[in-house]
Design brief:
- It is a single chain.
- By secondary structure, the chain is of the alpha+beta class.
- The protein folds into two domains: 121 residues, no CATH class; 122 residues, Alpha-Beta Complex (Nucleoside Triphosphate Pyrophosphohydrolase).
- The chain contains seven helices and 15 strands.
- The strands form three sheets. Strands 1, 2, 3, 4, 5 and 6 form a six-stranded mixed β-sheet that branches.
- Strand 13 and strand 14 form a beta hairpin.
- It is globular, with a radius of gyration of 21 Å.
């Protein structure tokens, strides 16, 4: 079935373009209640107002990925940081940039889930314009008569190469993130890319040929120089910056003296629940896991 977007979610860098009035309300409200009651349509734009000729196969044309959320077909578009062409042509001059991470303050809410899903599709639209095997321009696989492989109704974002007949599905890069406990303390680290003195949990991408457990142990060993035991899965979260699927774990310290690797990590230490450094922002899986630790949820973990 060919999907035609009714609305567009437009992104620029790590931000979503939203109406100025809504952005002012969200900034002034600064609480989860306002975010949880804001509907996805409020941060998207009618497709009828955006000229279709902007979406061409030419190098200067825009590409979008179509998906369905709560019965509405959306197109997701990612602009360059200094790109205003679509904004002007689509009449989005009243739009302002609003951080996607703040929209995902409560990622389990409909707005948070929509923001993360749409951002992932916007990134996929940019990196899936051409076939990675033969270089030909890709087209939407849904409803394409040349596609030999049957696609279900949820194969949103699937792309098809008319030349070599390959199908490409939206890519996700699995990454592990681990809360390491030692007695009543947890290990938090400052990555050189983090703003200010923000600390978070040890995290890293899963490499080819690794299990999730092997990746978690390796990342902890590489970044902190310690070994862990009793690794347990907690939960997951899509994190489209640009295309991660974060898989959260908890583990116990087993041996070794924790120290930063001096490359990615410039500081780390053990912290108790009543003596925490600057934390990750709310909405992230790291903050969610740390909050569960502070609440005493892992006190009986073995």
């Amino acid at each position: 079935m060919i999907l035609h977007p009714r609305r567009f979610a437009v992104f620029q860098g790590q931000d979503c373009l939203v109406p100025r009035q809504l952005a002012e309300q969200l900034h002034s409200g600064a609480d989860s209640a306002l975010l949880s009651t804001t509907v996805p349509e409020a941060i998207s734009w009618l497709a009828a107002g955006i000229p279709p000729e902007l979406f061409t196969g030419a190098p200067q044309g825009y590409s979008y990925s179509t998906f369905v959320f709560q019965g509405i077909a959306y197109g997701a578009v990612l602009l360059k940081d200094d790109d205003a062409r679509l904004i002007k042509a689509g009449g989005l001059e009243n739009a302002v940039n609003f951080p996607v991470r703040e929209l995902a303050f409560d990622f389990s809410s409909q707005l948070g889930r929509f923001a993360l899903l749409a951002k992932a599709h916007a990134h996929w639209a940019v990196v899936s314009r051409f076939c990675g095997a033969c270089g030909a321009p890709l087209v939407d696989a849904n409803g394409n008569e040349e596609v030999r492989e049957p696609l279900d109704d949820h194969a949103h974002g699937a792309r098809f190469c008319p030349r070599c007949k390959r199908i490409f599905f939206p890519r996700m890069s699995p990454a592990v993130i681990v809360l390491v406990r030692k007695g009543n303390s947890i290990l938090l680290e400052h990555n050189v890319r983090f703003p200010g003195k923000r600390h978070s949990l040890i995290a890293g991408f899963v490499e080819i040929g690794e299990t999730l457990e092997e990746a978690a142990a390796r990342e902890i060993r590489e970044e902190a120089g310690i070994e862990v035991k009793n690794l347990q899965y907690l939960r997951s979260q899509p994190w489209p910056f640009p295309d991660s699927l974060m898989l959260g774990f908890i583990a116990e310290w087993a041996s070794g003296e924790a120290h930063p690797d001096g490359v990615e990590i410039d500081h780390l230490d053990w912290y108790t629940a009543d003596n925490l450094p600057e934390m990750p922002m709310r909405g992230s899986i790291a903050r969610s896991i740390i909050d569960r630790f502070v609440a005493g949820e892992f006190s009986g973990t073995r």
